Amino acid sequence: MSASPSPATAIDLPAAQASAIAPRLTALGARYDAAPVFPIESMKCLADAGLHRCFAPVASGGHDFGSVDAWHLCLFNVLRIIGRADLSVGRLYEGHVNAMILFDRFGSATQHHGLGQRLDAGAFYGMWATEPPPGVQMIGRVLKGAKSFATGAGGLAHAIITVQPEDGARRLIVVAADDAARADLSQWRVRGMRATGSGLYDLTDMIVAEDDLLGGPGDYDREPLFTTGAWRFTAVQLGGIEALLIETRKAMSDAARGDPMQRAKFADAVAATRTAYLWVREAALRAAREDADGPAFARMTRGVVERAALDVMELAARIVGTRSAMDGQRIDKISRDLSLYLRQGGPDYARDQAALTWLDHDAWGAEDPLW
Ligand SMILES: Cc1cc2nc3c(=O)[nH]c(=O)nc-3n(C[C@H](O)[C@H](O)[C@H](O)COP(=O)(O)OP(=O)(O)OC[C@H]3O[C@@H](n4cnc5c(N)ncnc54)[C@H](O)[C@@H]3O)c2cc1C
C-alpha cells in the first residue's frame, strides 16, 4: 500500500495528476467512441496515476486531505477535469468514487483492508441501483434479478449494488462485475456515452458471502448523503460543458470573432458555463458539511447544469456551424455524450422538490436568507 502524501500536497496532487493524463484520456475517448468497448486503457491510465485510490477510505490507502471541505473541493476538480477529457470515463470514475464513499461510510475494518488489496491490483468499482422490475431480490443469500444502466457491466472488477431482502429495507452488497456471461450490452446502441457500456447485468443465482454485505438495511437511502451525492455527476457534466466552451472558442472563425452577434452568443456560453461551475462547487461544499438543505441544493443544481449544458450545446452549434456535427470533431462527441448523460432519473421531480424547499425557506443558507 502506498504511503499517503501530506495533507497539503494531497489537496492539489490528484487534480494535477488528472490534468497530466487528460490529453491521453481525450485521445483514447475518441477511439472508444468510434469502437465502443470497456475503456480498459483509459481506466489503466487513471489507476497508474493513483486516481482510483485517492478518494478511497484512508484505511484502504486513500489520501488524507486534512478536511472534508478539501476532500470535496479536490474531488470537484478531479471530476470536472476527467469529464472534460471524456464523459464516458468521467461516468465510470464517478461510479467508482461513489462506491469508495459507501465503503468509507459503511465498510468494516475487514472490508477496508480487502478494498485496499483490490485497489493495489488496480480494481475499479461501480455502483448499480437502477433495475428493471421487480428488481434484484436476495432470498436467503441467493440473488435473483438484474441491474439495468449498469455502467461498466462485464468490464469493472466489482460493483456495489442495491438488493431487496425478504424483510426490511433495501441494502448494499458487493458483487463481482466482470463476468462477461452475465453482461448484456446488446441494447446499449446509443448516441453518446458509448464506452460506459451501461447495459444489463444478471445477478441470478449469485451467492452473497457475509463479507459482501455492506452496512445495514436502509443505509444507501440515508439522507442527506443519498440525494446530495448527485452533485458528483453534475461535476462530471460540468466538465463536459467546460470542454464544449473550450472547443467552441478554438473553432470560432475570425469572421465570427469579428461579429458582435456571434460574440454575444459566446458571452452567453461563458456565463452559462460559469454559472454551472458556481452552483456545482457550492453543492460540493454543502455535501462536505452534510447540510440539511444539501438535497434541495443538489436537486436545484441538477436543473441549473442541465439548462447550462443544453444552452452551450445550442450556442456551440450556432457559433461553429456544420463543423460542430461532423464525425471526429470534439464538439460532436461532447454534445452527443452530454445529450445522453443529462438524462438522469426524475429531473422534473427533482426541480419540483427543490422548489418546495425554497417555498418553505431560502435554502441558499443562513448567511444571506432572502426570506
Ligand atoms: C450514461 C448513463 C450511465 C448510467 N449508469 C448508471 C449506473 O452505473 N448505475 C445506476 O444505478 N444507474 C445508472 N444510470 C441510470 C440513471 O441513474 C437513471 O436511472 C436513468 O438515466 C434514468 O433514465 P430515464 O431518463 O429513462 O428515466 P426515467 O426516470 O424513466 O425518466 C424518463 C422520463 O419520465 C419521467 N418520469 C419518470 N417517472 C415519472 C413519474 N413517476 N411521474 C412523472 N414523470 C415521470 C421523467 O421525468 C422523464 O422525463 C445511468 C444512466 C446513463 C444515461
Could you characterize what this model shows?
The protein has 371 residues and is α+β, with helices and mostly antiparallel strands. The protein folds into 3 domains: 118 residues, Butyryl-Coa Dehydrogenase, subunit A, domain 1; 91 residues, Butyryl-CoA Dehydrogenase, subunit A, domain 2, CATH 2.40.110; 136 residues, Butyryl-CoA Dehydrogenase, subunit A, domain 3. Strands 1, 2, 3, 5, 6 and 9 form a 6-stranded mixed sheet that branches. A 3-stranded antiparallel sheet has the order 4-8-7, with no helix packed on it. β5 and β6 form a beta hairpin. α7 runs parallel beside α10. The structure holds flavin-adenine dinucleotide.
Give the secondary structure arrangement, pairings included:
Layout: H1 7-34, H2 40-48, H3 68-85, H4 87-106, H5 109-120, E1 125-128, E2 137-139, E3 142-144, E4 146-150, E5 158-165, E6 171-176, E7 183-184, E8 199-202, E9 213-214, H6 225-228, H7 231-251, H8 254-257, H9 260-288, H10 294-320, H11 330-341, H12 347-360
Parallel strand pairs: 1-5, 2-5
Antiparallel strand pairs: 2-3, 4-8, 5-6, 6-9, 7-8
This protein binds flavin-adenine dinucleotide.
